[in-house]
Structures
1.
Amino acid sequence: MIDYKTLITQAQAARERSYSPYSHFCVGAALLTKSGKVYLGCNIENAAYSATVCAERTAFFKAVSEGEREFEAIAIVGGREGEICEFCSPCGVCRQVMAEFCNKDFKIILGNENKFEAYTLDKLLPLTFTSENL
Ligand code: THU
């Protein structure tokens, strides 16, 4: 099992590939599966702004499309071009995507070069709407 610091370093590397010519806000994510594999993602923007996809969803969609269904943790690193902000918290849409594939105890690691904070999905998205509500 890789440690959170390593996962944050991988998210930082993924962030280097961010395509964000409009917001100049660059985000990287490293998604750890229960089997120990890591899928990286960056935000990918679009001139039609709503077509933009966040780093977290890029990582999830890469993993799910490769057959992965069981996830342990995701590390997220973000900030304006050339700098890393304190913590980059996932948007509501990404939290909802996490809820589709992850248990309440899925770990969301917000990090920067010096420190990190770990949350559970349950903490960041309480009273979730899932398939169980249908
Ligand atoms: N963004 C992410 O990729 N992840 C987050 O957690 C927050 C926001 C992206 C979307 C957009 O490309 C840019 O950051 C500014 O919102």
2.
Amino acid sequence: MKNKFYITTPIYYPSAEAHIGHAYCTTMCDILARYKRMRGVETYFLTGTDEHGEKIQKKAAEAGVTPQQYVDDIAAKFKNLWKAMKISNDDFIRTTEERHTKVVQNIFSKLYKNEDIYLGKYEGWYCTPCESFWTDTQVGEDHLCPDCGRPVHKDTEECYFFKTQKYLPSLLKYYDENPKFITPVARKNEMLNTFIKPGLDDLSISRTTFDWGIPVKENNRHVMYVWLDALCNYITALGYDTEHHELFDKFWGEDSEIVHVVGADITRFHTIYWPMFLQGLGLRLPDRVFVHGLLDLNGEKMSKSRGNVVSPIPLIERYGVDTVRWFLAKEFSFGSDGRFSPELFAERINVDLANNFGNLVNRTTAMINKYFGGKVPALSNPGEKEKFIEDLTGKTVRKYEALMDDLQPTEAFDEVINLLNSTNKYIEESQPWVLSKENRVEELGNVMAVLVNSIITCTKLLSPALVETQDKVFAMFGLSKEQQQYDYVNKFCVYEGNVVSKGEPLFPRLDVKIETDFINSISH
Ligand code: ME8
């Protein structure tokens, strides 16, 4: 395992306000960043906004404000949302900031001097919303954008091109030598079959038809193509090519694991062109581009014009931040497409948080107060059932860590839920109420000690998602600073004598019908 970790979200277009899809990607990155920090890995987590391009310029004109005013307003809303969702990003880059624009201009000059770029003429099919040119084959007979499915139009433009063929052989070699560079692996095959094998054209990287972009220093009629501008954020934010390059040296160095998490709609830019730009600059390539699936709402693509966008803020206000984060982390397997529906939301919270985790905590605190005056008893002479849970706990921790390290948080949480289920089953099998009636104090104490151990271990393992719950559980079980350390997940039943208080129920059960009506009422 490398000893540094650099993780990034896409930088989102501030063309409309963030919805649950953006929140999904950012939350998954936050979970991975928090996990790495918990394991003692030096971590840097970046997100931001991608503020240039024709689309933004048009939106601003429609709103009757300057593009800068337009993006200032929406970027501030993105920042507020991440704060409300307890996102632990270390920086927030905006591509209109000078620390970015200046360096991108120098990057263009470097690539130009390196003869990776030339001036030419482009003719093709253009999709305005995606800011992408496409070939005849790509748009097909219906002339639809292969990315978003909307109509494209014929356009011609003088522009600078990036020589993709120059770097294609070394890119393919990198794919071969790094089988996890693009995951899930189906996404790599999609790149090869859809874009690379049919023949990769040179990429046009400047525009002359609008001016809301970073000017090309060499030729002031041109602004930079928004994707060249945007992709560079991953290094400009670290101070690449500036006096303050400490972060760049640290997190873009060989001993740093670099992970870009992106949605399936933008895989091509991150797995084909971005590595080529990096090669042109003589820089190392990222370790992983993890492609997550896209969420729809009740089977329909989310979009403002359809009026089916769910904003995370009213959800957080009603259910609390941990509940929303948990739903996103657990409902959709990371890497697969998913369907958001109000019923699924309420059911997921009830099954995992109210009935399983929350109920275990409530029962345990109540029993320790009733049977042991609120003090955690010691484990002594454990029987088969206790040994089974001890063994399962060890296995769970090892599987969880391996899955998290492999960027599979949903599956890592499945393991923890499994341990919680087994612990609840262990209560039914041990029947502490019978042990109490028959005055079998040692056995009863063992049950309590095991329950406390499971709760504390699972709380820690779930804490990258459940960021507020951890503090509540630690307080309820009177954990010392020492006991709060992550490494305690490798010890078993070491909480003897801790004082347990009865808190409020952690996760109240939701009424599926009432909550479905509520969530439908806030979709717009
Ligand atoms: O593409 N489900 O920005 P963008 C899940 N600026 N994730 C979703 C989603 C959905 N329905 N909708 C959006 C851009 N996302 C460029 C990126 S990076 C150098 C430049 C998430 O605002 C998903 O991660 O359109 C997707 O890739 C990203 O938002 C696109 O955001």
